[in-house]
Amino acid sequence: MALPPRSLRDPARLAAGLALAALLLFAGTATWLQFARTDLDWMRATLSLYLHGPHGLWLRGAYCVLAAAIAVLAIALHARLRGAARRGLPLALFCAAGVGLATVAVGDSWLPQRAPLLAPLVHALAAQTAFLCVTTAMLLQAWCFGRDPRWRGFHRFAWWWAWLAFAGLWLHVLWRDTPRGLGQKAVIALVVAWLARVALQLWRQPRRHG
């Protein structure tokens, strides 16, 4: 009997492939909206503004897909790493970021009509949770890569890219004179690119037996 493809015999590799596809779907949707929404100034409008109005449902769906991708990738990494590199805190933070992102998408679907006074607070708390948790998790996960011999060669790239995203987030928060849309989208691009590169690295890595 023929064996299934290698990716199907390795759950972590399959999860990495699914996460990579989801990340590309999110990136493609967000990029497409920058051209489709001619009513918004892409340099000044944050991505959250695209959740409402024409094609808003597409972005809300893409947010949920991204949230699932973050959680799936975090679980796969936790399962694949070994010894001192396997830590529960990055997993918990990545999952919290996914929950925050999904809350933004779901809350923005009905809260503005049902609870207009509560909607901005929920959106702000959920979005801040997502950004802070995912960038902190990236730093911790990158540090953990350096403690696993099979990931040590990838550690330096992941570590400095994670710091770039973390610094970019705080630059966006503290430097209010920058175009808000451009700054936020740059941080999102750094995060999504880091996640995609990690997913690709996991997908390429052979499974450890025993």
List the SSEs and their pairings:
Layout: H1 6-9, H2 11-36, H3 56-80, H4 88-114, H5 119-145, H6 152-174, H7 180-204
Please state the structural category: mainly alpha
What's the total helix number?
A: 7
Helix content: over 70%
Mean pLDDT: 91
- N-to-C CA distance: 24 Å
What are the secondary-structure elements, in order, as H or E?
HHHHHHH
- Unreliable stretches (pLDDT < 50, length at least 5) are none
What Rg do the Cα atoms give? 18 Å
How much strand?
under 5%
Question: Count of DSSP E strands?
Answer: 0
Globally, the shape reads globular
Major sheet description: none
Oligomeric category: single chain
Question: What would you note in describing this structure?
Answer:
Helix 2 packs antiparallel against helix 7 and helix 4 (88-114) runs antiparallel to helix 5 (119-145). The mean pLDDT is 91. It contains seven helices and no strands. With 210 residues, the protein is mainly α.
